[in-house]
Specification:
There is one protein chain. By secondary structure, the chain is an all-alpha fold. It has one domain: Orthogonal Bundle (MetI-like fold), CATH 1.10.3720. About 75% of the residues lie in helices and about 0% in strands. Helix 4 runs antiparallel to helix 5. The two termini are about 15 Å apart.
Length: about 300
């Protein structure tokens, strides 16, 4: 058993379970994950520098109502003369901030619960999984709507609600992986060597569930952006915030379709769709890369 542990340690020194070279290099070499990464980098760039590139402030209302795209307003204007391009550039950062924050909080809670539950088992597993089961059986979107309707309509509230409702499934996924990993010879060898449970979890197990965590982080981020847009579309959340969701809400409320103001609807709608496709491409690519590297062990 110790020999197996040593052999696996040598393999890890050459690259580990998730990559014989470097995970990022392997991901960029994979066509699917590369395409997904490029899309995310582009949107991240827009989110960061967008407010500085916006030709007008988000509060600008000097344009004509429902003006089609022109040289002065490349994506036209909305019902009160807002520059749609400026709203989109400013709103991209807000939407990505909400999505990423929700994903990080959910992944942090879900990973800790899943790792602890899967590794320790027994009463720890039973107690944690009962909480997870209760949260999983609750109707997600109706509960999200109800909480959003009765709590203060701020982005912080939206983030906390989405994070609380998003982590349980993540913990289930991580737990299932840990239950398999802890039966591996190198984990049993680590136990025999006297390593504490926390060291085994974070030094030996955590690196092997990293691809799973990365995939779920991307999916949760996109899901949170879609959920925020959905809440805003129904008039919930912070409607004073400039983001993709509120842009769609005001477009729907002010009859953009009737006025054929496609330039107001298309940018946030297409952006959400493209992010969803990028998430699936990245997830597929990461799965392929992880499978290839796992097969090397």
């Amino acid at each position: 058993m110790i020999g197996n542990y040593q052999n696996e340690t040598e393999i890890k020194k050459k690259g580990g379970l998730v990559g014989s070279e470097n995970l990022l290099v392997s991901l960029f070499r994979n066509k699917k994950s590369r395409a997904g990464l490029i899309v995310f980098v582009i949107f991240a760039f827009i989110g960061i520098v967008g407010p500085f590139l916006a030709p007008y402030s988000a509060s600008y209302t000097g344009g004509a109502n429902f003006q089609p795209p022109t040289n002065a307003h490349l994506l036209g204007t909305d019902y009160i003369g807002h520059d749609v391009l400026s709203w989109f550039l400013v709103g991209t950062g807000v939407s990505l901030y909400v999505g990423l924050t929700v994903a990080l909080i959910s992944v942090a809670i879900g990973s800790i619960v899943g790792l602890a539950s899967g590794y320790y088992g027994g009463i720890v597993d039973s107690a944690l999984m009962r909480v997870v089961d209760i949260l999983l059986i609750l109707p997600g979107f109706p509960l999200l709507v109800i909480l959003s309707a009765y709590l203060p309509p701020t982005n912080t509230t939206t983030i906390l609600i989405l994070a609380i409702l998003s982590w349980p499934f993540m913990s289930r996924v991580i737990r299932s992986q840990v239950l398999t990993l802890k039966e591996r010879p190198f984990i049993k060898a680590a136990v025999l060597s006297g390593m504490s449970g926390s060291k085994i979890i974070f030094k030996e197990i955590f690196k092997h569930v990293m691809p799973l965590i990365a995939i779920n982080t991307v999916y949760l981020m996109v899901a949170a952006i879609v959920a925020q847009a959905g809440l805003a579309f129904f008039g919930l959340g912070d409607l004073n915030s400039v983001n993709w969701g509120t842009s769609l809400y005001w477009a729907q409320t002010e009859d953009a379709v009737i006025y054929n103001a496609w330039w107001w609807i298309v940018p946030p709608g297409i952006s959400i769709a493209v992010l969803g496709i990028a998430a699936n491409l990245f997830g597929s690519g990461l799965t392929e890369v992880s499978g290839e590297k796992a097969g090397e062990i």
